Structures are given as structure tokens and as C-alpha cells.
């Protein structure tokens, strides 16, 4: 009775071992198919010199961009306030052509502001 049990256990252990080796081999094959490692930087001294040189330009460009953004925002606010005041003074149900043109100008400024916000 002990011999069939031992044979069963040895057969089970052999099957598990062979399955494990097949699984490990499959993992080893798939391990190399991941993302490639990034290449090393070309030259660190060049990139450091270039970033230091472009820093003042970048800050002046950022300041110019911020000025344009604030100017456009002020214009948009002014146009919206003026249109609201004009509409409030007119009779209900009356829509002048200048309101339509002013709304188009507000839309143009809003699109410009959106593009400036994107950068």
C-alpha cells in the first residue's frame, strides 16, 4: 500500500516540477519583450550649457506671454461689461446688429485667450 502512494507522490512532484520549469522558461522569454531601456544622454555638459543660455530667453518669453494673456483678459472683460450695459438699457425683444458684432468680438477674444492659456 505504501509503494503506490509513494509512486503517486513522486509522479505528482515530477509533474509539478516540469510545469514549473515550463512556466519559468515562458517567463524568461517574455521578460525581454518589455519596454526598452532609454538611451544614455548624449553629452551632459552640452545640455547644461544650453539650458543655462536659454533660461533668460525663456523667462522673457514667459513674461511677454503673461502680458498678452492679461491684456486679452482685460479687453474681454471690458467688452463683456459694455455689452451687458448696452443690452440692459435697450427695450426687451430688441436685438441690434452692433450686439451681434460685439458678441463676435467677444468670441474672438475668448478664443485668443484660450489659445494663450494653452501655451
Walk me through what this model shows.
This protein is mainly alpha-helical and 119 residues long. It is 82% helix and 0% strand. The protein has 3 helices and no strands. Helix 2 runs antiparallel to helix 3. The radius of gyration is 36 Å and the shape is elongated. The mean pLDDT is 80.
Mean pLDDT: 80
Q: Cα distance, first to last residue?
A: 82 Å
Low-confidence stretches: none
What order do the helices and strands follow?
HHH
Number of helices: 3
The percentage of residues in β strands lies in under 5%
Rounded Rg: 36 Å
What structural class do you assign from the helix and strand content? mainly alpha
The total beta strand count reads: 0
Concise overview:
The chain has three helices and no strands.
Topology:
Blueprint: H1 2-31, H2 44-89, H3 97-118
Helix pairs in contact: 2-3
Amino acid at each position: 500500500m505504501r509503494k503506490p502512494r509513494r509512486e503517486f507522490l513522486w509522479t505528482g512532484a515530477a509533474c509539478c516540477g516540469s510545469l514549473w520549469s515550463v512556466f519559468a522558461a515562458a517567463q524568461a522569454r517574455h521578460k525581454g519583450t518589455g519596454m526598452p531601456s532609454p538611451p544614455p544622454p548624449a553629452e551632459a555638459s552640452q545640455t547644461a550649457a544650453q539650458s543655462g543660455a536659454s533660461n533668460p530667453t525663456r523667462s522673457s518669453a514667459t513674461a511677454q506671454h503673461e502680458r498678452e494673456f492679461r491684456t486679452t483678459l482685460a479687453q474681454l472683460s471690458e467688452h463683456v461689461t459694455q455689452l451687458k450695459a448696452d443690452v440692459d438699457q435697450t427695450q426687451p425683444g430688441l436685438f441690434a446688429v452692433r450686439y451681434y458684432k460685439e458678441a463676435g468680438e467677444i468670441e474672438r477674444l475668448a478664443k485668443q485667450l484660450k489659445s494663450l492659456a494653452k501655451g
